[in-house]
Amino acid sequence: MSDAAVSRPELRVARLDLWIDPVFDETIARDGTLDLRVLPAGGDAVTAAGLAGAHAYHVSAAKDEVPARWQVSADLLAHCPQLLCVSSGGAGYDTVDVAACTRAGVAVVNQAGANAASVAEMTFALLLSLVKRLSESEAALRAGTAVSREALMGHEIEGRVIGIVGIGEIGRRVARIATGFGLKVIAYDPLLTDAQIAERGAAPVSFDALLEQADIVSLHCPLNAVTRGMVDAAALRRMKRDALFVSTARGGIHDEDALLAALESGHIAGAGLDVWQVEPPPPRSGLLQRPDVAAAFHTGGVTHEGRCKVAQGSATQILDMLAGRKPARLLNPEVWPRFLARLAEHGVKV
């Protein structure tokens, strides 16, 4: 197959009317051969018909933003016979059943790395908020109860050990920043060799060793069947007493009840959380009531720069796939030959 498209019929790209950086629509429009359809997330028949006729679907990666019926499940795929490819609007792909897509001959891409700088920065925003007790200090100042600086005394992170779980695009940036803060970096990633982990700036260790050695445990792995519930009560008990737990990964990897219990017992000293089982979490959540929890509304990757890069990456990969060019972030490479055959059936000559 040549990378250059000789001819291409008009193909339809669909997305829901959820917020996305304008560069997505602009990039699709510049191609000149694609028909972009923006469908109501709260719609019914109109949205169903639009997706049924779509050849490409850009879908938000946030499961709590996309109504369940418009998430890419086996049921949705059964009603979308024209669908050739799906692009997840983030590094995660919680809204896409990749295995079901593979069975249906649908290529799936994500935008891993596009917002990596933003998420890595959020990791340290949460961590520094915890050790410097920023929320407590601000609350005391606003309430007029700030009297003694020593009563709000924090800690340094220099010289501590940070354990990175998942040293991919985000994790490797966290490792680089950590070195600048004078942290020792260790990492666990079952998808990489020890040599690859070392090349990314960390000493490779097992998951259990990381829990036992790290003063700061920071999650940067995807949510999947293997990682769901990975940080449970048993894992938290293996952590150092007075260690800190930080997650900018996905809710569901850590057990929120077990984390709350570990904080209440004093076994760990604090948690920085950008991700939740339910987003947003209930305001009366026990974790949100604690001064030793720094909390954010899954905004680590939600920066102007990060959202622009994600939208640009999604549009570019859709253009590549519909032209028969293999995309940069293909999650199911085994589907590619079948995808090309299906693309040819739709009249695309490559």
TrEMBL record:
One Pfam family of this chain: 2-Hacid_dh_C
Molecular functions per Gene Ontology: formate dehydrogenase (NAD+) activity; NAD binding; oxidoreductase activity, acting on the CH-OH group of donors, NAD or NADP as acceptor
Nucleotide-binding recorded as keyword: no
The entry's keywords: NAD, Oxidoreductase
EC class of the enzyme, as a word: oxidoreductase
Record-listed E.C. numbers: 1.17.1.9
Record InterPro entries: D-2-hydroxyacid_DH (IPR050857), D-isomer_2_OHA_DH_cat_dom (IPR006139), D-isomer_DH_CS (IPR029753), D-isomer_DH_NAD-bd (IPR006140), NAD(P)-bd_dom_sf (IPR036291)
The D-isomer specific 2-hydroxyacid dehydrogenase catalytic domain, residue ranges: 35-332
Domain of life per record: Bacteria
Similarity comment: family membership: Belongs to the D-isomer specific 2-hydroxyacid dehydrogenase family.
Entry protein name: Formate dehydrogenase, mitochondrial
Species this protein is from: Achromobacter animicus
